[in-house]
Design a protein that fits this description.
- This protein folds into two domains: 12-284, no CATH class; 320-739, Glycosyltransferase (Alpha/alpha barrel).
- Helix content is 30%, strand content 17%.
- It is built from 19 helices and 33 strands.
- The protein has a five-stranded mixed beta sheet, with no helix packed on it.
- A hairpin with a 3-residue loop joins strand 4 and strand 5 (59-63).
- Helix 15 (650-661) packs parallel to helix 19.
């Protein structure tokens, strides 16, 4: 069933007595406790409905409310196995299972299914599996039908054990020799009367026999609906809390919302591949703008906590210097690629879909971070006067639709919304920040559902970060904890997420804690050994009282991937980006965000590396030596090479723009940021000009050449979002640089150790 706020059961695919896979569907109601919770749920808690779906050997495809088609990869179907769907853990999300030879495998997520969460034994080979909520507690139970005998057990199913029979009875026995004592028809399950517990039934050639209660099987109802060659389906088609019936004929679904005098009130068509079988799926009822189909019955994010920025769309009449105009032009060129040729290649085929299935064969980083960077790029251009349709090639409406689709899809598949989704792991705070910032910039243009999901994502990631200890490369005594792997950028991206969450949601229950933790991480990010014993106060706390370690050398350089790494020094701009957010939120920026910023930025143009000299990270410095920034040119010297390529420029454009805008807080020396910005922006435009195409991409149109220029698979998205960040800083300069917050931000007490990077971290871009 699908009552508002309930946790419903589901339905399975049952093998008919002729060994043809046929669907049997169930839904359920809430228990008394769940009903109480539903009554207290916020008004935005969605009801659920059953929708047409097909289950194939490896995929579930469904037509969700509002007509969208979605597909999700399923666990591979075992030999002679039958698929079932159910809410096995009572979280309100309907997820897959497999029955084969008396063995059950159950998954608690419909995205990124790996090994089953539960395995157990119940039934024998040749049994027909049935699933439903037999006792109305919101957890899907299982059962089997053998000849005319039904064997049922209650969930949650114990993993690795044999379930015991809860109830056994005979239903639909036929005594004629033609049927050998087996029931005529396909077993079906449903909450026919909406009382919260499922009943059972049989379908045979258009004739239905159903019983409302498992305790009164003599009381049955006989219905006529369908034809001999139809596939029966059951489900709550209209979300009223009671199941109806239906049949599938070819590609057409005929669905009745009621079992009393049934009629096809709903018809739907859904194409499928040969061998796919009907398998209706329970999803939330759609709201305006769609509803995340994989959402669990979890607490909703409170979108009323978000305060949209009033500092957007203030570009009219601004007088820009030449370099600033060129940065804006470079951003618009990148937008033209994202919304043009790349959109045609990646997203155009999905333009009618409210939600995209992003998690699949690629790593989470590529699946989530890349579209998040794209969404933020376009959102910044859209709301800051850098999205001229004549240059970008798309209207403001097209750009808004692009951002909205990516944001809602990313937020939908976050762990805080979808069981088994991405998030709450290493680097995911950064991806959430990118997505959350994009959402905030277009907040008034998002659906209520999307806003709720974004808040849930942001709050979950921010709360997790407050519980973790600050990560350090080295301890106060000089002991290196992670040789060759600074934790500077990890501190910076975590601080960025927390700062954005506090800026977006200043009245959130944990906003003050988020802001304090953000400052704590910011101070640690590029701290040196000297900072550990410093008595200087930063947001009211000295280094000796705040720091347990450090992440940078005394000269402001950092090592990562076993080399002195300019790209990871450049990631200090993630802290400066928080100043942009604070300005858009009309609040002061903590002075912690600029701690050691001048030291790190100055080192790029003042630290002279001697070719052939030993590096503290191991190895020696490469020819020709010199400073990372080569004054008067757009060249970058990488003293020990680079993981991705040495022609990248966009992230230095963003770094220089922020250093220019926040110069009074950095007290940097060396090559002036304005000069560096002019040269590095020129280098960025040179890359675009040499790409071999006019579509706006940064790197070569020849994939083999592009891979040598920058090996990172998301090189175009990364360059584009860096250009957007550069422009955002320059936009803030037009608004007026935010004042410093020098007030005390105390040191939060963590409850867990900080996680280390995964083994494959060396493949990730900064």
């Amino acid at each position: 069933m699908a009552r508002r706020g309930s946790r419903s059961a589901t339905y399975g695919l049952a093998a008919a007595i002729v060994c043809v896979l046929m669907p049997v569907a169930t839904t359920s109601a809430t228990s008394a406790a769940a009903a109480t919770a539903a009554a207290a749920a916020p008004p935005t808690t969605p009801r659920t409905v059953n929708v047409p779906a097909y289950a194939g050997p490896q995929e579930l495809e469904a037509r969700v409310p509002r007509g969208d088609l979605v597909s999700y990869r399923l666990p591979a179907l075992t030999s002679h196995g039958t698929r079932v769907m159910g809410d096995w853990d009572g979280d309100g999300a309907e997820t897959p299972g497999i029955f084969a030879h008396g063995q059950w495998q159950l998954w608690n997520q419909v995205v990124r299914t790996k090994g089953p969460d539960v395995t157990g034994s119940f039934g024998h080979s040749g049994d027909i599996p049935v699933v439903g909520d037999w006792n109305g507690d919101g957890v899907t139970d299982i059962g089997v039908v053998r000849d005319s005998t039904w064997y049922l057990t209650l969930g949650p199913i114990p993993t690795g054990a044999s379930a015991t029979v809860w109830r056994q009875f005979t239903f639909g026995e036929v005594t004629s020799d033609d049927h050998d004592g087996a029931p005529v028809g396909v077993p079906v399950v449903g909450d026919w009367d909406g009382n919260g517990a499922d009943g059972i039934g049989l379908f045979d050639a258009g004739r239905w026999v159903i019983a409302n209660s498992l305790t009164d099987l003599e009381q049955t109802r006989t219905l006529s609906f369908g034809r001999a060659d139809d596939h029966p389906v059951t489900g709550d088609w209209d979300g009223n809390g009671a199941d109806g019936i239906g049949v599938v004929r070819g590609r057409t679904w005929y669905l009745s919302n009621r079992v009393v005098r049934p009629r096809a009130a709903v018809t739907s068509t859904l194409d499928h591949d040969a061998g796919d079988v009907p398998a209706t799926w329970r999803v939330p009822v759609a709201t305006v703008g769609g509803t995340c189909p994989t959402r669990a019955d979890l607490p909703r994010g409170d979108a009323s906590l978000v305060v949209p920025s009033t500092m957007l769309d203030r570009h009219a009449g601004a007088v820009l210097d030449r370099t600033t105009r060129q940065v804006r032009g470079s951003l618009q060129t990148a937008e033209r690629y994202l919304l043009g040729d790349q959109y045609d290649a990646l997203w155009r085929a999905t333009r009618s879909s409210s939600y995209l299935s992003l998690l699949g064969g690629r790593s989470d980083e590529l699946a989530i971070r890349l579209p998040a960077m794209s969404a933020l790029t376009v959102a910044i251009g859209l709301r800051t006067g850098a999205a001229d349709p004549k240059v970008v090639g798309r209207s403001a409406g097209d750009a808004t639709a692009y951002v909205s689709q990516l944001v809602r899809s990313i937020a939908c598949e976050h762990e805080a919304v979808t069981p088994g989704g991405w998030g709450l792991g290493w680097e995911t705070a950064h991806w959430a920040m990118l997505t959350g910032a994009a959402a905030w910039l277009v907040w008034d243009r998002l659906s209520p559902e999307t806003r709720s999901d974004v808040v849930a994502m942001m709050a979950a990631e921010a709360d997790r970060e407050t519980q973790l200890a600050v990560p350090y490369w080295a301890l106060a005594d000089g002991t290196v904890l992670t040789p060759g792997d600074t934790k500077a950028e990890e501190c910076a991206w975590s601080a960025g997420l927390l700062a954005l969450a506090a800026a977006m949601m200043p009245s959130a229950p944990h906003a003050a804690l988020w802001r304090a933790k953000s400052a704590d991480l910011a101070v640690a990010a590029y701290s040196t050994r000297a900072d550990v014993t410093s008595a200087t106060l930063v947001n009211g706390v000295s280094g000796q009282d705040r720091l347990q370690g450090y992440n940078a050398y005394l000269d402001g350089t950092v090592e990562n991937h076993q080399r002195i790494h300019p790209d990871y020094a450049a990631n200090i701009q993630l802290l400066w980006l928080t100043a942009d957010f604070d300005r858009l939120a009309r609040q002061r920026v903590p002075e912690a965000m600029f701690h050691d910023g001048g030291l790190v930025y100055s080192s790029l143009s003042t630290h002279d590396f001697q070719a052939g000299a030993d590096s503290p990270a191991g190895g020696t410095y490469a020819e020709p030596g010199g400073t990372v920034y080569v004054p008067g040119t757009s060249r970058i010297y990488y003293p020990q090479g680079d993981d991705w390529g040495v022609v990248r420029r966009a992230h230095f454009v963003s770094l220089d723009a922020h250093a220019l805008v926040y110069a009074k807080y950095l007290d940097a020396t060396g090559w002036p940021a304005g000069h560096a910005l002019t040269q590095h922006e020129r280098g960025q435009r040179a890359l675009v000009a040499a790409s071999g195409t006019a579509d706006g991409r940064t790197y070569s149109v020849d994939p083999s050449v592009a891979a040598r220029q920058d090996t990172y698979p998301g090189r175009e998205e990364y360059a584009a979002h860096c250009l957007a960040s550069a422009w955002l800083a320059l936009y803030v300069r037009q608004l007026g640089v935010p004042a410093l917050d020098t007030g005390t931000l105390p040191v939060p007490v963590p409850t867990e150790r900080a996680p280390h990077a995964p083994a494959a971290a060396s493949t990730l871009a900064p």
